[in-house]
Design a protein that fits this description.
This protein has a single domain, classed as Alpha-Beta Plaits, CATH 3.30.70.141. Helices cover about 40% and strands about 20% of the residues. It contains seven helices and four strands. It has a four-stranded antiparallel beta sheet with strand order 2-3-1-4, with helices on both faces. The mean pLDDT is about 100. It binds cytidine-5'-diphosphate (CDP) and magnesium ion (MG). The site of cytidine-5'-diphosphate has 9 residues, from α4.
Length: about 130
């Protein structure tokens, strides 16, 4: 079984959408392994998104992720990584397919409700950063 890191981001938490986001993952057969509800320290948020450092949207991404608590979830199922990305939909809610979380519940960039790891390397790195080793 494959593992991935899902984040219910601060916009979704603030708008009371945690339950609806979790329900979609459960209905899609994801099993939740560990969860952490927290406003992370800035240093950890910057490390989490280090690959985006230098991009024009980096500052707004960090500000957004520090705007309130998020729910971090280690989840598993077969093909978890690509299935979670498909459920989330395209990065920009305006371009995401109807039926995806970002299209149905997201607002704009960076307020797109959810994160899902983009590869097995990213999943291992992100799960390690948020939850530590098994
Ligand atoms: O989250 P995902 O992997 O789909 O997208 P990304 O390209 O890795 O970007 C990470 C996050 O940065 C996005 O989910 C958005 O919240 C934010 N972002 C943004 O604010 N503006 C962009 N043009 C691209 C990304
Ligand atoms: Mg990404």
């Amino acid at each position: 079984m494959e593992r991935t890191l899902i984040i219910v981001k601060p916009d979704a938490v603030a708008r009371g959408l945690v339950g609806r986001v979790l329900s979609r993952f459960e209905a899609a057969g994801f099993e939740f392994v560990r969860m952490r509800f927290e406003l992370l320290p800035e240093e950890l948020v910057r490390r989490f998104y280090a690959e985006h450092e230098g991009k024009w949207y980096f500052a707004r991404l960090i500000d957004f992720m520090l705007s309130g608590p998020s729910l971090f979830i280690e989840a598993r199922r077969d093909e978890a990584i690509h299935r979670a990305r498909n459920l989330a939909g395209a990065t920009d809610p305006c371009e995401a397919e109807p039926g995806t979380i970002r299209a149905d519940l997201g607002e704009n960039l960076p307020r797109n409700c959810v994160h899902a790891s983009d590869s097995s390397e990213s999943a291992a790195r992100e799960i390690g950063l948020i939850f530590g080793a098994d």
